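Human: I'm a chemist; would you kindly supply sequence and structure tokens for a protein?

Assistant:
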Amino acid sequence: MIRGRAICASAAACAALLVGGCGDGAERAVSAPAKRSIALTIRFDDGEGQRKHGTLGCRSGQERATGIAHPAARTCARIQRIVPMLIVQPRKDRACTLIFGGPQRVRVSGTIGGKRVDRRFTRTNGCEISDYGRLAGALPAIRVR
């Protein structure tokens, strides 16, 4: 469901506004157990030469993270909330606004609850900007311009 949104002057402001918008229903497609074991590598590319990566491991009270911008426990909690988005690829026919949010790209790979994850995020349209924004708490420690 798309709610009224102001036109954004900058990509960062636009990403912040779009978090939670442009949903494709993938969240309902996967059952959501309370906690899942998580082992992920998150790679960030700013599209201008800066590349970073981080790792995240979440297993009942044994959270660990390297290169991630936030504490491991907080990042694990955030990832647990967006597991369906990471497991299920977005529908190819979803309607998205034609807005370019920037050249940044993120690749999330690893396993969640024993299921293989290999999901790529860009900021090339409104839906992708929204999906990318939902990862904000799990991105590698980067300096945003």
User: Anything to note?
Assistant: The longest strand covers residues 102-112. Residues 30-138 form a domain with the Subtilisin Inhibitor fold (CATH 3.30.350).
